[in-house]
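I am still getting used to backbone structure tokens and would like to learn alongside you. To get us started, please write out a protein record for me. Start from the sequence, derive the backbone structure tokens from it, and show both lines together. Once you have written the record down, we can walk along the chain together:
***
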Amino acid sequence: MDIIISHKTALEYWRLYGNMEINNAVRQRRKKLPASLPGSADIRNAMPSGLAFPVNLMINSQNAKRVSKIVKPRVYTGHVPDWSFVKIREGVSASAPPLCFFQMSAKLPIVLLIELGYELCGSYSLPAGNEYNNGSYASSRGFFNHPAFTGTKELKAYATRMKGADGYKKVSRALRYIIDGSASPMETILVMLLTLPHKLGGYGLPAPELNKRVDIGKADSQRPGGAYYKCDLFWPEANLAVEYDSNLYHTGKSRIAGDSKRRLDLTEIGVTVVTVTSGQVRNVIEFEKLAKLIAKKLGKQLRLENPQFAKARSELRELLL
């Protein structure tokens, strides 16, 4: 049996099992894809638990295309670079994250492809049910933390090797705006709203570093690595940190005391800290005030006179929030 899980099903697989598999994943070199599919019972038995049917499976022949409640074949006859697949178990493989990103480009609008790139290059995954469907996500934005599945450098290198394939131009465009290191869906949304270009509805601010380590104390016998914080969004050229304050994970007196100490410690070494709440992100007027404040701290001037910007901004917020 030779089965390759692909497209949406591969993304589901990585969201369900990636945390356990990413450090042990065995990449495969394949010269060709399967020419046929096994029977429905064999397919069902071969699938890791939790994947939604019909599953997406790659084949290289239109003659083997057989759509059913169990399987949705994905015919592909083009070039596939080495190391595009990961072995799951004997006879079963899945699209590796770079190929999965490429495959999802056919389904996702550019903004949501960028968001998916942040997820794959970040330290979190959305639940497997978070599928883009007719303009909105089907599930809530809970998430799981884990090491990054891939990075922008690997995605760009893979895209170069796929030059000329369907989706290449869209993927290349999306990769201009993806930054490594996001630790949560709301961090991704925050940085996308701030940095995407006006034509995509963002404020066009310079890209920050995400979850940047900022040292606040020297190493000693008690703290060999020295004291430091990780700032959600950090612009080193302006010593500016923007921190997302999530009420979901940070409540009570201990949180307030910890946040106060964090701001004080960072301020003492010359870092300006701006705290952003969920309410500010979701309120378009408050968020614009925030964007203007950040722009001022960065020595930038926002130019929002273009009447098309308001429309693009509304569309972006509708997709992300």
